[in-house]
Amino acid sequence: MQTVTTIEALRQAVDELRAPHGGTAAATLALVPTMGALHEGHLTLVREAAKRADHVAVSIFVNPRQFGPNEDLDAYPRQLAQDAAQLEAQGVALLWAPGVAAMYPAGYATNVSVAGVSAGLCGADRPGHFDGVATVVLKLFNQVRPDLALFGEKDWQQLAVIRRMARDLDLMQPHVDAILGVPIVREADGLAMSSRNAYLSPADRAAAATLPLAMREAVARIADGQDATSTLAALEDALLGAGFASVDYAELRDADTLAPLDADNRNARLFVAARIGGTRLIDTMAIG
Ligand code: PAF
């Protein structure tokens, strides 16, 4: 695996990887964008990428533009050597690990803002977050020019923002249909894997398992035709009763448009963000 930290070295490495071996067709390249602190969820993305392309590139960049002023940018776990070893073991060809100055050189002034799907849910609780995500992901796409890119479905709204951006800006590489969502990978007790789970104390980690449990119960009730408003209120009560400090949102939305729903529409998803011990956890599940 080659690790590169400058745009020039990245371009050269990508050109070398794409050079046709034997035949005339250029080799295909899949990108898995990450912020590092890799867990099984990320490694699943890498394995899915490897099934679909000749080579896999992974980016690790803790993107300051997607963190709010009072968020965990400084605390966010950084473990590049450990991450690199895991990626090497998965057969990843290229690790793109730029520093902040390589990604946002002095004088950097451009922002990508995707209206509509960025509003509400995490967009409401984290103003500017999705601008930061869209900006860095567009830069990563332009830097690596992958044939396809893979993202975890835990960040469902993020995926919707990226796909909207790809459509709106006529992205060719990766084309919108080549931006793939991969199902959430969960711990044995159902908690969705996240780099932020590492912040949880043992007691909070145990209580955090209530999130997927209560969500599954709510999903079953809504799919069964029970009233969504009272079901979501009961879900919030269950989380607060289990030790969550607050619930940022517990909402039913259309999976594609993210439009709010007050009942199952056969394409509904449940979205929850809740805070425990200072850590904000998110999760999403399809209804039915
Ligand atoms: O999901 C993430 O890890 C980040 O939001 C991403 C897509 C790598 C952009 O920084």
From TrEMBL:
It catalyses: (R)-pantoate + beta-alanine + ATP = (R)-pantothenate + AMP + diphosphate + H(+). The gene is panC. Beta-alanine binds at residue 66. It is found in: Cytoplasm. One of its GO terms (cellular component) is cytosol. The reaction proceeds by a bi uni uni bi ping pong mechanism. HAMAP family: PanC (MF_00158). It comes from Aurantiacibacter arachoides. The active site is at 42 (proton donor). (R)-pantoate binds at residues 66, 158. One of its GO terms (biological process) is pantothenate biosynthetic process. One of its GO terms (molecular function) is ATP binding. ATP binds at residues 35-42, 152-155, 185, 193-196. Catalyzes the condensation of pantoate with beta-alanine in an ATP-dependent reaction via a pantoyl-adenylate intermediate. It comes from the Bacteria. This is Pantothenate synthetase. Belongs to the pantothenate synthetase family. Pfam families: Pantoate_ligase.
